[in-house]
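[step 3/7] fold_predict: job queued, chain A
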Amino acid sequence: MKRALYLLIVLFALCGCTQKAHVKTISENRQTNQAQKQKNKKAPKKADSSVDTVDNETNSTTTDSQSNTVYENQNAIDKRIIVLDPGHSAVVATGMEPLGPGSTEQKAADASGTSGVSSGVPEYELTLNVSLQLKEVLEQRGYQVIMTRESNDVPISCIQRAEVANNANADAYVRIHANGSENSNAKGAMTICTTANSPYNSTIYGESKALSEAILDKYCEITGCNKEYVWETDTMSGNNWSKVPVTIVEMGYMTNPEEDMLMQSTEYQQKMVQGIADGIDVYMENH
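[step 4/7] structure written:
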């Protein structure tokens, strides 16, 4: 009887141990499953992080592209505009024009200009040649350059020339000419602007005078020519119709045999161009 009781106790103990062992296995399985679920939950987050990285890179690229565009647009906005007006033309504009806005006085729309006493080169040919070289140099220096004419076969009046500068809202309107005189000994360079009391555009007198002075100073410094003066006058219709800072550059006297030939030489023309460009630079630094 005691032996049978003992066997029953042993069997009961064994059953209890087996049950505990089985419960432990379920618990471990649950922990494993939970761990796997946690791992699975983390995996999508890692994928999302990767997507965020791609989005950030895309946004960064877009921002850089926008920044470059803004920079390029800003450069375009900051670029100074120079209008060059090669004086006269082979085909002269006919008719008469008012001396200035509101004026009853009439002047010829244009004139044929002078010509070289020794070279025989017409003024319109010299002025276009120098202006085209000047355009190239100024563009190399970062300016935007607009020409009133690029051919000797274009008839264009003084008002039409000024309108090119006005419509462009130019920072400077530079008119390229060569001088002439009955006195064959006259030589040197001068610039021309309107007066402080101009009835047409007195508001730009200060800037026009500064532009004239800067170009004349540098031009004579570089070329070594005789420096005349800044002539202030309200008799030049091309200046009177300008709404932007304007000057006429009289580069030298074509009626002086020596100066005429000098202005035809390649080396001297390079100095002429550099002098005008340097003068424009000086003016722009202060305005």
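[step 5/7] annotate
The chain has seven helices and eight strands.
Residues 86 and 129 are 8 Å apart (CA to CA).
exit 0
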